[in-house]
Structure to design on (420 residues):
């Protein structure tokens, strides 16, 4: 057992010394008593986004009407460059905000396959996020490719040995999550990218659970492709557009399967044949979602102000504190850590295993703490590094230990009747 204190005063002291403490007030809070530990599902609403959206809707759309396209048309690349500069370590001209993560996966995997004739194996891990696995399954079925699955430990993420066994001269693309959605396991991007390149394949990283929480160094790691969403740590709101990254040296070699007019050279010439622009804009499809892209830019600016390194430090501090309290208070009630214990191997959420995790997650929400449940028997707690306080973690774990001790969750229904 650790020597760290478990009293609430210690959490208050950590908050008093938190250099990001002032950012909590930059978010809309309608219910002061609510503890929100689901920032890795849907991030909170920044006040700046609320007012910027009102301005865009009222002035740019309401008054400017179609004339505003002149300024809107550059937004997907501008927001992409902000993400590249402040969050994902990508030089300008390599990140574009567009479509959803799912659609971007489909575009980039197909483009990567087309660029490597003679290689027809796709590799991913069997605990990758469902949409990643389904998109790869669909592409493999449509194109007659092989999908090779790496077997993964649910708590620790894919092991290097299993990846090495799947690599070979027939592999076209390896597609992995940087941070595993279930356990929060953080992959070694640089090392894995190097291993994939040694076999001559391309690598695609899903950054949904790392962008905005963990510094990502796409250019330095030599990554080829990446996708990520913006409604989690970028706080851009439900259904906000995703982003994609294509390494500069690859862009003009790749041609995506959706030949939309927003990727077309001399778009308004309305010419007869598709001829994609050079650069990352060729991965655009149709009319961009402007309101969502505005929210992506605002959310990214706020994170940039906080600083990704400081956000990472805070994420590590919050999650290791959470693990410390879970060890002290929850282990005797049947909880077990289902995330990597080492800070360097963990993203910004913590998963706890308990045979009754579903009912406990419901009881926790009823007690004013929003976390979430993940199959088969896991409670996922995702503090928002920019907005969560140490006392929030303390209060959440305190309520959790009470629920576990008095077993009040046992009166709740057991069936999985959830939508999210
Ligand atoms: C790792 C990962 N990839 C993809 C997605 C979702 O993709 P989309 O935004 O297209 O629904 C999620 C959503 O939680 C995710 O965690």
């Amino acid at each position: 057992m650790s020597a760290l204190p478990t009293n609430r005063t210690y959490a208050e002291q950590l908050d008093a010394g938190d250099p990001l403490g002032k950012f909590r007030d930059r978010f809309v809070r309608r219910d002061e008593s609510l503890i929100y530990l689901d920032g890795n599902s849907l991030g909170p609403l920044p006040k700046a986004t609320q007012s910027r959206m009102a301005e865009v809707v009222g002035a740019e759309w309401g008054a400017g009407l179609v004339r505003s396209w002149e300024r809107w048309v550059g937004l997907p690349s501008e927001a992409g460059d902000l993400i590249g500069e402040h969050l994902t370590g990508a030089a300008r001209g390599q990140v574009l905000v567009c479509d959803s993560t799912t659609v971007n996966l489909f575009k980039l995997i197909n483009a990567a396959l087309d660029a490597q004739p003679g290689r027809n194996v796709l590799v991913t891990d069997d605990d990758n996020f469902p949409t990643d696995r389904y998109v790869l399954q669909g592409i493999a079925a449509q194109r007659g490719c092989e999908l090779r699955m790496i077997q993964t430990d649910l708590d620790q993420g894919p092991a290097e040995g299993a990846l090495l066994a799947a690599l070979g001269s027939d592999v076209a693309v390896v597609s992995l999550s940087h941070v595993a959605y279930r356990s929060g396991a953080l992959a070694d991007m640089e090392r894995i990218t190097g291993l994939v390149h040694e076999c001559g394949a391309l690598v695609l990283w899903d950054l949904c659970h790392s962008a905005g929480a963990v510094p990502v160094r796409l250019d330095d790691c030599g990554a080829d492709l990446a996708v990520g969403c913006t409604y989690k740590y970028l706080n851009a709101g439900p259904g906000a557009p995703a982003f994609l990254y294509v390494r500069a040296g690859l862009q003009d070699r790749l041609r995506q399967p959706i030949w939309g007019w927003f990727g077309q050279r001399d778009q308004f010439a309305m010419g007869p044949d598709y001829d994609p622009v050079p650069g990352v804009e060729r991965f655009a499809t149709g009319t961009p979602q402007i309101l969502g892209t505005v929210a992506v830019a605002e959310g990214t600016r706020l994170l940039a102000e906080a600083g990704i390194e400081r956000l990472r430090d805070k994420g590590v501090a919050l999650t290791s504190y959470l693990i410390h309290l879970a060890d002290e208070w929850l282990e005797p009630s049947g909880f077990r850590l289902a995330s990597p214990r080492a800070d360097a191997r963990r993203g910004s959420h913590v998963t706890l295993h308990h045979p009754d995790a579903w009912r406990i997650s419901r009881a926790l929400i009823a007690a004013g703490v929003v976390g979430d449940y993940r199959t088969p028997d896991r409670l996922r707690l995702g503090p928002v590094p920019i907005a969560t306080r140490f006392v929030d973690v303390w209060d959440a774990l305190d309520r959790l230990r009470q629920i576990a001790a008095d077993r009040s969750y046992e009166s709740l229904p057991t069936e999985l009747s959830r939508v999210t």
In short: Residues 100-102, 129, 131-132, 177, 181, 206, 208-209, 229, 242 surround pyridoxal-5'-phosphate (CB under 6 Å).
